[in-house]
Predict the 3D structure of the following.
Amino acid sequence: MSDDMDMEDGGTIKKFMFVNRKAPYGTIYALEALEVVLISAAFEQDVSMAFVDDGVYQLMKGINSEGTELKNFSKTYRALDGYDIEKLYVEQESLEARGLTEDDLLVDVTVMSAAELAATMAEQDVVISH
Amino acid sequence: MLHIINKSPSDRNSVEAALRLATKGSVVLLIEDAVYAATRGNTAAAKIQAAMADLKIYALKPDLETRGLADRVMDGVSLVDYAGFVDLVAEQPNCQSWL
Amino acid sequence: MKFGILVNEGPYTHQAADSAFKFAQAALAKGHEVTRVFFYHDGVNNASRLTVPPVDDRHVVNRWAELGEKHGVDLVVCIAAAQRRGLLDDNEAKRQGKDANNIHPAFRISGLGQLVEAGIQNDRLVTFGD
């Protein structure tokens, strides 16, 4: 089995979608999911992230984790476009149900209706959930 | 797409989310605690019933039996074993797990 | 068909590891290949060589090990997730100055790239988690 340094996979490009449905900080899934996304950038795949249900909370501005001493990883979302990961899809219904708008989010995203997101999900080769 | 759901609809919103984001013609497989969604009268029964118009719904038989639900399955839900689970993943072009 | 499997939770606490194993077992019985099982988040605990489950219950760790040994399934544990949770192999223990190691020899520690690679190289990647 090849190790991380060998990225030669015959040039196969697959559509990878990383689905985020959990709120940040109460569990580690948001943080560890982000770590997979960053690594995927090295493999030159067609990567997107979907934020659904409580997953939309991961993108909120104004995170201050000093009091809980949990590691603040907001800046990692801002670093994504530097890794050419620009397709961040946020489900409109999830935002609205939580009283949020795009203005509450710390990065540029593409807000999609459930129907649009469903169609996008259906086209993916690989969907990873946490 | 094969949508694999593993949590009870009365515990998490995963069944609801999956049904909302599954396109017409998709397949749903209920495993682990999500098999409760396949039983008569469960909290998601109406949603599952409605979804059958557009989606094919399966439940994993070993998980139903493990929970004592084998004789409570809703009409219209098909049962598979682990071999059938593998077939479903192979037959659909892609899959997604709703946790 | 070639399958990759992602296991997000540890043994016993969640059914995820069991469902993943039963799926892998069924896939192999049908003549498919299960090329890699990748353990992430608390899934790394599936690799502990120190588990002592009750004798009348299934031995989750040993079942995985047998899958690796008899069917050549590559059992990979994410190094970052393992370090966080105190799962170290001999090399890692020495590197980190720890006085013990606890990874079962049937598993190997590697990077998240192995998960992305599993998505690229297999026909299907199935996630089992919480």
